[in-house]
Fold this sequence. Notes:
It is a single chain. This protein is mainly alpha-helical and 92 residues long. The protein is 59% helix and 11% strand. The protein has one domain. It has helices at residues 24-31, 46-91, and strands at 4-8, 14-18. A two-stranded antiparallel ribbon has the order 1-2. Strand 1 and strand 2 form a beta hairpin.
Amino acid sequence: xxxxxxxIGGDGGEHTSTEGGGSEAEHExxxxxxxxxxxxxxxxxxxxxxxxxxxxxxxxxxxxDKIRAELGKLCVxxxxxxxxxxxxxxxx
Length: 92
């Protein structure tokens, strides 16, 4: 686990950095695939990258919840007849 250091920047603002340099946001963004050396179209700062990820995650979470609900319904539809047949077989 890396150490986080709080530093006071020349502008008087506080900045956090992780062991090995870079801000905490940069460290977290790198964990999710952000490349600080990328210079092409759509280049984002670490903070922008993380904000976009949070926005996208919200949409994905809603979709995942819908898919899980549908899967649950399908599982009941598939399992219920099998359970009924099993009950009938056990009574015989």
